[in-house]
Amino acid sequence: MGKILVTGATGFTGTALCRRLINDGHEVVAFIRPTSKTGALTELGVICKTVDICDAEAVLDNFTDISKVYHIAAAYRTEHSTTETFIKVNVEATRNLLEAAKQNSIERFIHCSTVGVQGEIDDPPADEEYRMKPGDHYQESKKDGELLARKYFAEEGVTGTVFRPVGIYGPGDTRFLKLFRSIARGVFVMIGSGSVLYHMTYIDDLVEGIVLCGTHPNAPGEVFTLGGENYTTLKELVGEVARVLGKQPPILRIPYLPVFWASIICDKVCKLAHISPPIYPRRVEFFSLDRAFSIEKARRLLGYAPKVSLHEGLSRTADWYRENNLI
Protein backbone atom coordinates (compact mmCIF):
# COMPACT_ATOMS: atom_id res chain seq x y z
CA MET A 1 0.00 0.00 0.00
CA GLY A 2 1.10 3.56 -0.68
CA LYS A 3 1.19 6.49 1.67
CA ILE A 4 -1.88 8.30 2.97
CA LEU A 5 -1.95 12.04 2.30
CA VAL A 6 -3.61 14.34 4.83
CA THR A 7 -4.12 18.01 4.02
CA GLY A 8 -4.85 20.40 6.87
CA ALA A 9 -2.81 18.09 9.09
CA THR A 10 -1.65 20.83 11.48
CA GLY A 11 -5.25 21.71 12.41
CA PHE A 12 -7.21 20.17 15.25
CA THR A 13 -9.05 17.56 13.18
CA GLY A 14 -6.11 16.92 10.87
CA THR A 15 -3.69 16.23 13.71
CA ALA A 16 -6.16 13.89 15.43
CA LEU A 17 -6.69 12.03 12.15
CA CYS A 18 -2.93 11.69 11.58
CA ARG A 19 -2.51 10.29 15.09
CA ARG A 20 -5.19 7.68 14.42
CA LEU A 21 -3.75 6.70 11.03
CA ILE A 22 -0.22 6.37 12.44
CA ASN A 23 -1.55 4.26 15.32
CA ASP A 24 -3.30 2.05 12.77
CA GLY A 25 0.07 1.39 11.13
CA HIS A 26 -0.14 3.66 8.08
CA GLU A 27 2.58 5.82 6.57
CA VAL A 28 1.22 9.37 6.52
CA VAL A 29 2.29 12.36 4.43
CA ALA A 30 1.14 15.91 5.18
CA PHE A 31 1.19 18.81 2.73
CA ILE A 32 1.97 21.85 4.86
CA ARG A 33 2.63 25.57 4.46
CA PRO A 34 6.10 27.07 5.08
CA THR A 35 4.81 28.76 8.25
CA SER A 36 3.15 25.65 9.71
CA LYS A 37 4.21 24.36 13.10
CA THR A 38 5.04 20.71 12.52
CA GLY A 39 6.51 19.58 15.84
CA ALA A 40 3.48 17.53 16.88
CA LEU A 41 3.24 15.86 13.47
CA THR A 42 6.95 15.07 13.29
CA GLU A 43 6.77 13.55 16.76
CA LEU A 44 3.96 11.30 15.55
CA GLY A 45 6.08 10.17 12.59
CA VAL A 46 4.21 12.08 9.87
CA ILE A 47 6.25 12.96 6.76
CA CYS A 48 5.80 16.72 6.34
CA LYS A 49 6.21 18.21 2.87
CA THR A 50 6.01 21.93 2.14
CA VAL A 51 3.53 22.00 -0.74
CA ASP A 52 1.20 24.81 -1.75
CA ILE A 53 -2.06 23.02 -2.53
CA CYS A 54 -3.14 26.08 -4.53
CA ASP A 55 -0.32 25.30 -6.98
CA ALA A 56 -1.52 22.54 -9.30
CA GLU A 57 1.96 21.68 -10.55
CA ALA A 58 3.40 21.45 -7.04
CA VAL A 59 0.58 19.17 -5.96
CA LEU A 60 1.06 16.84 -8.93
CA ASP A 61 4.84 16.77 -8.51
CA ASN A 62 4.48 15.64 -4.89
CA PHE A 63 1.80 13.01 -5.40
CA THR A 64 4.29 10.15 -5.67
CA ASP A 65 3.24 6.86 -4.04
CA ILE A 66 0.00 8.28 -2.60
CA SER A 67 -2.79 5.69 -2.31
CA LYS A 68 -5.41 7.63 -0.36
CA VAL A 69 -6.21 11.29 0.38
CA TYR A 70 -7.99 12.81 3.36
CA HIS A 71 -8.58 16.40 2.28
CA ILE A 72 -9.21 18.37 5.50
CA ALA A 73 -7.52 21.68 4.61
CA ALA A 74 -9.73 24.73 4.11
CA ALA A 75 -9.78 28.49 4.39
CA TYR A 76 -11.94 29.04 7.45
CA ARG A 77 -13.93 32.07 8.41
CA THR A 78 -12.01 35.14 9.42
CA GLU A 79 -13.91 38.38 9.43
CA HIS A 80 -13.54 40.39 6.23
CA SER A 81 -11.63 37.68 4.34
CA THR A 82 -12.13 38.06 0.62
CA THR A 83 -14.36 35.84 -1.45
CA GLU A 84 -11.36 35.19 -3.69
CA THR A 85 -9.42 33.66 -0.78
CA PHE A 86 -12.21 31.23 0.00
CA ILE A 87 -12.53 30.20 -3.66
CA LYS A 88 -8.77 29.80 -4.10
CA VAL A 89 -8.41 27.41 -1.17
CA ASN A 90 -11.80 25.73 -0.81
CA VAL A 91 -12.50 25.22 -4.51
CA GLU A 92 -9.41 25.55 -6.69
CA ALA A 93 -7.02 23.77 -4.31
CA THR A 94 -9.61 21.00 -4.03
CA ARG A 95 -9.62 20.79 -7.82
CA ASN A 96 -5.80 20.48 -7.85
CA LEU A 97 -5.90 17.57 -5.42
CA LEU A 98 -8.77 15.84 -7.23
CA GLU A 99 -6.98 16.16 -10.55
CA ALA A 100 -3.78 14.70 -9.08
CA ALA A 101 -5.83 11.88 -7.56
CA LYS A 102 -7.40 11.21 -10.96
CA GLN A 103 -4.10 11.16 -12.80
CA ASN A 104 -2.57 8.83 -10.22
CA SER A 105 -5.60 6.50 -9.94
CA ILE A 106 -5.57 6.58 -6.15
CA GLU A 107 -7.57 4.16 -4.04
CA ARG A 108 -9.91 6.69 -2.40
CA PHE A 109 -10.36 10.45 -1.89
CA ILE A 110 -12.14 11.57 1.31
CA HIS A 111 -13.31 15.18 1.15
CA CYS A 112 -14.16 17.24 4.23
CA SER A 113 -17.10 19.54 3.62
CA THR A 114 -19.28 21.14 6.33
CA VAL A 115 -22.90 21.08 7.44
CA GLY A 116 -22.67 24.83 6.84
CA VAL A 117 -23.40 24.18 3.15
CA GLN A 118 -27.02 23.65 4.27
CA GLY A 119 -27.13 26.97 6.10
CA GLU A 120 -29.87 27.57 8.63
CA ILE A 121 -31.95 24.46 9.27
CA ASP A 122 -35.63 25.37 9.01
CA ASP A 123 -36.95 21.91 9.86
CA PRO A 124 -34.41 20.14 12.09
CA PRO A 125 -32.87 17.65 12.15
CA ALA A 126 -31.47 17.86 8.63
CA ASP A 127 -30.19 14.82 6.75
CA GLU A 128 -27.79 14.69 3.80
CA GLU A 129 -30.59 15.29 1.26
CA TYR A 130 -31.73 18.52 2.92
CA ARG A 131 -31.42 21.50 0.59
CA MET A 132 -28.20 23.52 0.29
CA LYS A 133 -28.52 27.15 1.33
CA PRO A 134 -25.12 28.66 2.23
CA GLY A 135 -25.34 31.73 4.44
CA ASP A 136 -22.01 33.42 3.70
CA HIS A 137 -18.99 33.39 1.36
CA TYR A 138 -17.24 30.68 3.37
CA GLN A 139 -20.22 28.32 3.23
CA GLU A 140 -20.73 29.10 -0.46
CA SER A 141 -17.13 28.16 -1.25
CA LYS A 142 -17.41 24.94 0.76
CA LYS A 143 -20.58 24.08 -1.16
CA ASP A 144 -18.77 24.61 -4.46
CA GLY A 145 -15.82 22.52 -3.25
CA GLU A 146 -18.13 19.69 -2.20
CA LEU A 147 -20.04 19.72 -5.48
CA LEU A 148 -16.75 19.68 -7.38
CA ALA A 149 -15.59 16.62 -5.43
CA ARG A 150 -18.91 14.87 -6.05
CA LYS A 151 -18.59 15.63 -9.77
CA TYR A 152 -15.14 14.00 -9.86
CA PHE A 153 -16.55 10.98 -8.00
CA ALA A 154 -19.51 10.65 -10.38
CA GLU A 155 -17.96 11.58 -13.72
CA GLU A 156 -14.15 11.57 -13.58
CA GLY A 157 -13.41 8.09 -12.27
CA VAL A 158 -12.17 9.15 -8.83
CA THR A 159 -13.38 6.89 -6.02
CA GLY A 160 -14.35 9.10 -3.12
CA THR A 161 -16.58 10.12 -0.25
CA VAL A 162 -17.73 13.41 1.24
CA PHE A 163 -18.27 13.93 4.95
CA ARG A 164 -19.80 16.91 6.72
CA PRO A 165 -18.68 17.33 10.34
CA VAL A 166 -20.86 18.97 12.99
CA GLY A 167 -19.69 21.18 15.91
CA ILE A 168 -16.23 19.65 16.48
CA TYR A 169 -14.79 19.91 20.01
CA GLY A 170 -12.45 18.19 22.44
CA PRO A 171 -9.10 18.51 24.24
CA GLY A 172 -6.66 20.53 22.16
CA ASP A 173 -9.27 22.70 20.46
CA THR A 174 -10.01 26.25 21.53
CA ARG A 175 -13.02 27.05 19.36
CA PHE A 176 -15.37 26.77 22.34
CA LEU A 177 -12.93 28.27 24.85
CA LYS A 178 -14.79 31.59 24.99
CA LEU A 179 -17.98 29.77 25.96
CA PHE A 180 -16.25 27.76 28.69
CA ARG A 181 -14.33 30.78 29.95
CA SER A 182 -17.34 33.09 30.19
CA ILE A 183 -19.34 30.45 32.06
CA ALA A 184 -16.39 29.69 34.35
CA ARG A 185 -16.08 33.39 35.19
CA GLY A 186 -19.80 33.86 35.70
CA VAL A 187 -20.14 36.45 32.95
CA PHE A 188 -22.00 34.46 30.30
CA VAL A 189 -25.14 36.15 29.01
CA MET A 190 -27.61 34.29 26.81
CA ILE A 191 -28.67 36.29 23.76
CA GLY A 192 -32.24 35.33 22.99
CA SER A 193 -34.23 32.46 24.48
CA GLY A 194 -31.58 29.73 24.22
CA SER A 195 -34.15 27.42 22.62
CA VAL A 196 -32.28 27.02 19.32
CA LEU A 197 -30.76 23.60 18.66
CA TYR A 198 -27.05 22.89 18.61
CA HIS A 199 -25.16 19.70 17.73
CA MET A 200 -21.68 18.80 19.02
CA THR A 201 -19.23 16.11 17.88
CA TYR A 202 -16.40 14.86 20.06
CA ILE A 203 -13.13 14.64 18.15
CA ASP A 204 -12.54 10.90 18.72
CA ASP A 205 -15.99 10.06 17.36
CA LEU A 206 -15.44 12.31 14.36
CA VAL A 207 -12.10 10.68 13.53
CA GLU A 208 -13.70 7.24 13.74
CA GLY A 209 -16.31 8.42 11.25
CA ILE A 210 -13.67 9.87 8.92
CA VAL A 211 -11.73 6.60 8.93
CA LEU A 212 -14.93 4.70 8.14
CA CYS A 213 -15.42 7.03 5.15
CA GLY A 214 -11.95 6.06 4.00
CA THR A 215 -12.24 2.31 4.52
CA HIS A 216 -15.83 1.07 4.48
CA PRO A 217 -17.02 -0.52 1.20
CA ASN A 218 -20.35 1.35 1.43
CA ALA A 219 -18.72 4.79 1.56
CA PRO A 220 -17.67 5.57 -2.05
CA GLY A 221 -19.98 7.94 -3.91
CA GLU A 222 -21.83 8.94 -0.75
CA VAL A 223 -22.18 12.03 1.45
CA PHE A 224 -22.27 11.54 5.22
CA THR A 225 -23.09 13.85 8.11
CA LEU A 226 -20.86 12.99 11.07
CA GLY A 227 -22.19 14.28 14.39
CA GLY A 228 -22.55 13.38 18.02
CA GLU A 229 -25.15 10.99 19.42
CA ASN A 230 -27.61 13.75 20.31
CA TYR A 231 -28.25 17.44 19.85
CA THR A 232 -29.52 19.80 22.53
CA THR A 233 -30.92 23.28 22.92
CA LEU A 234 -28.31 25.97 23.41
CA LYS A 235 -29.64 26.51 26.94
CA GLU A 236 -29.11 22.81 27.71
CA LEU A 237 -25.59 22.92 26.26
CA VAL A 238 -24.69 25.95 28.37
CA GLY A 239 -26.13 24.22 31.43
CA GLU A 240 -24.04 21.11 30.78
CA VAL A 241 -20.87 23.18 30.40
CA ALA A 242 -21.68 24.86 33.72
CA ARG A 243 -22.12 21.48 35.40
CA VAL A 244 -18.76 20.10 34.25
CA LEU A 245 -17.15 23.33 35.46
CA GLY A 246 -18.87 23.06 38.85
CA LYS A 247 -20.80 26.29 38.29
CA GLN A 248 -24.44 27.27 38.52
CA PRO A 249 -26.12 27.48 35.10
CA PRO A 250 -26.17 31.11 33.90
CA ILE A 251 -29.50 32.91 34.20
CA LEU A 252 -28.76 36.28 32.58
CA ARG A 253 -30.50 36.80 29.26
CA ILE A 254 -30.91 39.74 26.87
CA PRO A 255 -33.16 40.13 23.78
CA TYR A 256 -31.71 38.98 20.49
CA LEU A 257 -32.74 41.67 18.01
CA PRO A 258 -31.08 44.72 19.64
CA VAL A 259 -27.77 42.83 19.87
CA PHE A 260 -28.04 41.63 16.28
CA TRP A 261 -28.63 45.13 14.89
CA ALA A 262 -25.80 46.48 17.04
CA SER A 263 -23.51 43.82 15.56
CA ILE A 264 -24.40 44.91 12.02
CA ILE A 265 -23.57 48.53 12.79
CA CYS A 266 -20.34 47.54 14.55
CA ASP A 267 -19.32 45.35 11.63
CA LYS A 268 -19.87 48.13 9.07
CA VAL A 269 -18.00 50.73 11.15
CA CYS A 270 -15.05 48.39 11.72
CA LYS A 271 -14.86 47.57 8.01
CA LEU A 272 -14.51 51.27 7.24
CA ALA A 273 -11.83 51.57 9.91
CA HIS A 274 -10.07 48.38 8.71
CA ILE A 275 -10.16 46.79 12.15
CA SER A 276 -11.56 43.50 13.39
CA PRO A 277 -15.00 43.97 15.00
CA PRO A 278 -15.47 42.94 18.64
CA ILE A 279 -18.96 41.74 17.72
CA TYR A 280 -20.34 40.82 14.32
CA PRO A 281 -23.51 39.27 12.88
CA ARG A 282 -22.17 35.75 12.34
CA ARG A 283 -21.19 35.41 16.00
CA VAL A 284 -24.53 36.75 17.20
CA GLU A 285 -26.39 34.39 14.84
CA PHE A 286 -24.94 31.52 16.88
CA PHE A 287 -27.77 32.32 19.31
CA SER A 288 -30.56 32.28 16.70
CA LEU A 289 -29.94 29.53 14.13
CA ASP A 290 -30.90 25.87 14.53
CA ARG A 291 -27.98 23.48 13.96
CA ALA A 292 -29.30 19.94 14.38
CA PHE A 293 -28.61 17.01 12.08
CA SER A 294 -29.42 13.36 11.49
CA ILE A 295 -26.57 10.84 11.52
CA GLU A 296 -28.81 7.90 10.59
CA LYS A 297 -27.27 7.44 7.13
CA ALA A 298 -23.77 7.05 8.60
CA ARG A 299 -25.17 4.64 11.19
CA ARG A 300 -26.93 2.55 8.56
CA LEU A 301 -24.27 2.39 5.84
CA LEU A 302 -21.04 2.70 7.83
CA GLY A 303 -21.90 1.40 11.28
CA TYR A 304 -20.97 4.82 12.67
CA ALA A 305 -21.70 4.87 16.40
CA PRO A 306 -20.52 7.83 18.54
CA LYS A 307 -19.23 6.57 21.88
CA VAL A 308 -18.45 9.73 23.88
CA SER A 309 -21.44 11.34 25.58
CA LEU A 310 -21.79 15.10 25.63
CA HIS A 311 -21.16 15.18 29.39
CA GLU A 312 -18.00 13.08 29.10
CA GLY A 313 -16.70 15.04 26.11
CA LEU A 314 -17.28 18.40 27.78
CA SER A 315 -15.62 17.10 30.98
CA ARG A 316 -12.51 16.01 29.09
CA THR A 317 -12.40 19.35 27.29
CA ALA A 318 -12.77 21.31 30.53
CA ASP A 319 -9.98 19.24 32.13
CA TRP A 320 -7.68 20.08 29.21
CA TYR A 321 -8.50 23.78 29.49
CA ARG A 322 -7.66 23.66 33.20
CA GLU A 323 -4.44 21.71 32.68
CA ASN A 324 -3.29 24.38 30.21
CA ASN A 325 -4.39 27.29 32.44
CA LEU A 326 -6.93 28.48 29.89
CA ILE A 327 -9.79 28.68 32.37
TrEMBL record:
Belongs to the NAD(P)-dependent epimerase/dehydratase family. Residues 4-227 form the NAD-dependent epimerase/dehydratase domain. It comes from the Bacteria. It comes from Desulfomarina profundi. InterPro entries: Epimerase_deHydtase. This is 3-beta hydroxysteroid dehydrogenase.
